[in-house]
Design brief:
This protein has 136 residues and is of the alpha+beta class. The protein has four helices and five strands; from the N terminus they run H-E-E-H-E-H-E-E-H. The mean pLDDT is 96. Bound molecules: zinc ion.
């Protein structure tokens, strides 16, 4: 995976994080997906006063991409203002395993100058449920 591609995707995630709606946590998280034809779709976390309704940046970006018709993803960047960096939560891992199983996942701090961490979905969520029996 080339560094230019990774850095471009991280930049898109950083840009999206600036538009996070995080009045409660103050944590501005950004995510960006790269499609197999090189398009980038990004999103940020959206929080609710009813905390359980909060949606992570990865899911916002994924839902945007899916509802724009994209189905094939090669890479995902996730940026968080934390050290250590956030990795996708369990709910996001499920959706990423279903809809972006082959994507490389880069997690990068937006506040600490440390290298991006690289993961694969099969290590983030081994033995994932990726379809319902009889649905294919
Ligand atoms: Zn999540």
């Amino acid at each position: 995976m080339d560094e230019k591609k990774r850095d471009r995707l991280i930049e898109a995630a950083l840009d999206a994080a600036e538009r996070a709606v995080a009045p409660y946590s103050g944590l501005h998280i950004g995510a960006a997906f790269e499609t197999s034809d090189g398009q980038v779709i990004a999103g940020a976390n959206v929080e609710s006063a009813s905390y359980g309704l909060t949606c992570c940046a990865e899911r916002v970006a994924l839902f945007k991409a899916l509802t724009d018709g994209h189905r094939d993803f090669t890479a995902i960047a996730l940026v968080s203002p934390t050290d250590p960096v956030f990795k996708p939560c369990g709910a996001c891992r499920q959706l990423l395993a279903e809809y972006a199983p082959n994507a490389v996942v880069w997690c990068k701090s937006s506040t600490v100058d440390s290298p991006a961490e690289e993961y694969r979905l099969n290590e983030l969520l081994p033995a994932a449920l990726v379809s319902l029996p009889g649905s294919e």
